[in-house]
Amino acid sequence: QVQLVESGGGLVQAGDSLRLSCVPSGRTLSPFTMGWFRQAPGKEREIVAEVKWIGGDTFSATSKKDRFTISVSVIKNTLYLQMNNLKPEDTAVYYCAAHRPSVVEYEYWGQGTQVTVSS
Question: Using 50, 70 and 90 to split pLDDT, how confident is the model at 22?
Fold first, then answer.
């Protein structure tokens, strides 16, 4: 079992930046695939970005949103999501998730952190 703890959400104005963090409690980030998802009110959950463990301390990152950057700090054992030039449509609950390399679907989910962008 992997427990994921997110932090960094909040209320910001359009154009601001935020960085979300996710720490796997009691485990290292590798060898999991880690991702950030979001769910806005009345909408389906969507993936924002993910990193896949390649080997050693190396991860391959993919972002689905141009203004968002996913990254890993192996030293701090932390997953980040840097969000720049935030827009009101980015308002959502953001979730950190993970799955083992042998599994296709995400297995472990954090409790979510609210991001609210005012216009």
Answer: very high
